[in-house]
Design goal:
Length: about 190
Amino acid sequence: MDVLIVEDDLILLDFLTQEVSNQINVPERRVRKASSVERARYLISQKIPDWLLLDLHLPDGSGVELAEEFVQSKQKAKVLILTAQADQYALPASLLKNMHALINKADGLAPLRQAVWEICREFDSTFPNLSSLTPRQLEFLHLIGEGLDTAQISKQLNISFSTAQTHRRQITRKLGIKGSALVTLSRNLPKVS
């Protein structure tokens, strides 16, 4: 899965790169990034990404125009927009079928994580499918992400250590991941409602 992140705030760009690389479980250097429309166009001309995460207001041009160019170059392209001016833009109809989500930066990290998770599932069928987990297993997985070990989780959930071990084994079996990969995944889970 190839993603390009376009954001002019360099601190936020680095944070988004780290966040996305954690979710798609690749090294940060594999997530391409640009802080301008010009750089993004260059990177797209070198290799068209599967999806684009971008801000709408960039110092040298419009994120909307960049998104339109991107979807013209790839029919199944997906665009995820993260912007502080969500209410100030009307997206053109030509972008709507390729729009995955429009997220307001003020809404925080949870909607972004959810959108990235969904787009990853769309492009990669091997991406862990959380729907295979029971509500209790999801709760357990979120607690792993909070840094708790199996013994601490058993106390937190008021279950026996043996039951907690069983939950952990079932989670690793269903998701097909374990160890540090499971911890990384659990730290980047979208919040479930």
